[in-house]
Amino acid sequence: MAYSIDLSGRVALITGASGGLGAQFARTLAGAGAAVVLASRRIERLKELRAQIEAEGGDAHVIELDVTDQASIRSAVAHAETEVGSIDILVNNSGVSTTQRLVDVGQDDFDFVFDTNVKGAFFVAQEVGKRMLARAQGSAPGSFTGGRIVNVASMAGLKVLPKIGVYCMSKAALIQMTKAMAGEWGRFGINVNAICPGYIDTEINHAHWQTESGQKLVQMLPRKRIGQPQDLDALLVMLCSDQSHFINGAVISADDGFAV
Q1: How far are the Cα atoms of 221, 232, 254 from residue 217, in angstroms, in the given order?
Q2: Is it the case that residue 134 has pLDDT exceeding 80?
Q3: What's the CATH superfamily of 11-253?
Q4: 3-state DSSP assignment of residue 114
Q5: Which of 76, 74, 127, 118 shows the shortest CA–CA distance to 96?
Q6: I need a labelling partner for 23 at 20 to 30 A (CA). Which of 36, 93, 165, 203 fits?
Q7: What is the rounded distance in angstroms from the CA atom of residue 91 to the CA atom of residue 139?
Q8: Mean predicted lDDT score pLDDT of the chain
Q9: Is the pLDDT of residue 88 over 50?
């Protein structure tokens, strides 16, 4: 008998959905039947993605969101729930990085990374979490109680990498945030887990893998290969589904063994 996961009837909010892993996550969840809310500052890119998803028979909506602005977070989440319905799934994906040695990091560099990767991720999860908690406690309508939050961390949160120390620190904080939320919200049926991707080929870094330094890095990897965005599909869908009800506070590496 074939095994399948159906997310029909669920609403999923994906931050940082305008490209890279976020866009792939949105396509994947839409393909599994969820109504996806695409959130980012790059509205035109989101509209293009919405058209692609709709052309494939999916249900997609566009919301402008700046995760470094708490007013924007509150507005985006309220807009999403008004337009589409209560959010059942949050994929907390927005992230940025800088490349520099720690002695060269200035306050602006530090704030740039932490404002998005930690502070932004926290307040997006908090805003969605409040609404999930209200539904679970019966103070707001909804046919489904609880929820699924997937924080997109990185294997850099588990293994320090050169010249991106602040990014590594931010992703380590996101991992601890995941565990804290899982402990506090799990009793209400809200499962919070983290994915730690390894090196993934996206449009942002694709050219790098063709360079001498990129190829040198590939040769240092356990199986001398980098991942593709779709390599995370099965893990994401499982964590967003009802079938993940016994998985809470997990930090799951999807890095081809690099952080071992």
Answers
A1: 7, 21, 18
A2: yes
A3: NAD(P)-binding Rossmann-like Domain (3.40.50.720)
A4: helix
A5: 118
A6: 165
A7: 24
A8: 94
A9: yes
167 is catalytic: yes
What token pair was written down for 7? 């997310």
Specify the pLDDT at position 14. 98
3-state secondary structure of 13: strand
Question: Which residue do the tokens 């320090």 mark?
Answer: 160
pTM higher than 0.85: yes
Tell me the DSSP string of 136-185: HTTSS--SS-SEEEEEE--GGGTS--TTBHHHHHHHHHHHHHHHHHHHHH
Q: How far apart are CA 179 and CA 83, in angstroms?
A: 31
Going from N- to C-terminal start, the domains of the chain cover 11-253
Q: Give 35's contacts (C-beta < 8 A, 6+ positions apart).
A: 10, 11, 12, 59, 60, 61, 84, 85
Positive or negative CA dihedral for 97, 98, 102, 103? negative
Amino acid at 15: T
Q: Is 200 helix (H, G, I), strand (E, B) or coil?
A: strand
Could you give the CA distance from residue 157 to residue 259 in angstroms, rounded to a whole number?
A: 10
Q: What is the dihedral of CA 110, 167, 164, 226, to 10 degrees?
A: -160
Band (139; pLDDT cuts 50, 70, 90): low
Q: Which of 167, 185, 199, 258 is catalytic?
A: 167
Alpha-helical (H) ranges within the chain are 20-31, 43-55, 70-83, 107-114, 121-136, 165-185, 212-220, 233-240
Q: Compute CA distances 198 → 107, 121, 214, 227, 232, whole Å.
A: 27, 19, 14, 7, 10
